[in-house]
Design goal:
- This protein is 31% helix and 37% strand.
- The protein has helices at 2-31, 36-48, 76-83, 129-141, 212-226, 284-295, and strands spanning 51-53, 64-69, 90-94, 97-101, 105-110, 113-118, 150-158, 161-170, 173-185, 188-195, 199-207, 232-245, 254-264, 271-274.
- Helix 2 (36-48) runs parallel beside helix 5 (212-226).
């Protein structure tokens, strides 16, 4: 009899415990999500300030940790295997950069960043977006051994063809600072830009991040500052990681932090916002311009 009472007591206790845990879980989910009212308010504020959003708002959040990014060092032989099918190249040092000249292409390297230019005519008269994407994906298959877990992000029309963008994913998260941009014309791939710092893993404690609505308000203020008379159309918004500090450790490795990437129809390059601080990291155009000063052949 006593044993039956004890079993009933344990069962009731477990049921109560499950109810408490369910309530706590729901409460925590509410704390890390945007309500429908908040979402509506964000769209209204953006609209009143000339910003239209053609994508869903990110509404679910969890605290996130930093990532450690390793410094990458390539040998001449390794680069020849990756980009020149093992053929020998002529090395030309140039102002902190190194140029590798092949028979019909030139690779410019500076640290983990590179630019490959092929001797291919540029044009898109007979090229469709789908054809450009297919050619870029076929090109990426040759780079898979070196650049792993890169996924197609999107294809963007250019004046002289298409730019097909690939970003690395690490445990389901985009690494925006690890990218490969493949430029395709009707005669094939004519240029590739890439940056790669291998991910070593997570470090430190999980930290709360700012919600997407707050990041959008930061973007809105920045957009009004640089384009006060122009409306904006947000095509896409993603949460991922971006390297903000290299050589931050004794071994030359650095850190990537959570960030939002906002792609705007009226601007060629996306914007990045630090999810820890809700501050603009840097408009991507400025980042690209600084890199081109270093890597243009």
């Amino acid at each position: 009899m006593e044993w039956e009472k004890a079993k009933k007591f344990v069962i009731i206790l477990l049921v109560c415990l499950n109810v408490v845990l369910a309530v706590l879980y729901q409460s925590q989910q509410k704390e890390h999500s945007v309500s429908a009212a908040q979402e509506k308010a964000v769209f209204e504020v953006l609209s009143k300030n000339g910003i239209t959003m053609y994508t869903d708002l990110i509404t679910e959040y969890v605290p996130m940790r930093r990532l450690v990014c390793k410094k990458v060092l390539y040998t001449k032989e390794r680069l020849e295997q990756i980009f020149f099918d093992g053929k020998k190249t002529v090395v030309i040092p140039s102002d902190g950069r190194i140029l590798y000249r092949g028979d019909d292409s030139i690779l410019t390297m500076q640290g983990g960043k590179g630019e490959m230019v092929y001797d291919v005519s540029v044009g898109k008269e007979n090229l469709t977006k789908d054809q450009a994407t297919d050619q870029a994906e076929a090109y990426m298959k040759h780079l898979q051994k070196e650049f792993q877990h890169f996924v197609l992000y999107g294809t963007q029309e250019q004046e002289k063809g298409y730019c097909v963008k690939f970003y690395q994913k690490y445990e389901g998260q985009y690494i925006f600072s690890n990218y490969i941009f493949v430029y395709v014309s009707e005669d094939g791939v004519y240029r590739t830009e890439f940056c790669y710092q291998p991910i070593e893993g997570y470090i430190g404690e999980r930290k709360d991040i700012f919600y997407a609505d707050e990041a959008l308000l930061t973007f809105m203020r920045k957009w009004q500052e640089i384009n006060p008379k122009q409306n904006a159309t947000i095509q896409r918004m993603d949460l991922g990681y971006m390297t903000t500090e290299m050589n931050g450790r004794a071994d030359g490795s650095g850190y990537a932090v959570p960030c939002y990437m906002i792609s705007v129809m009226e601007h060629q390059q996306p914007f990045f916002i630090n999810a820890y601080t809700c501050q603009m990291i840097k408009p991507y155009q400025a980042l690209q311009e600084s890199e081109k000063k270093d890597t243009t052949i």
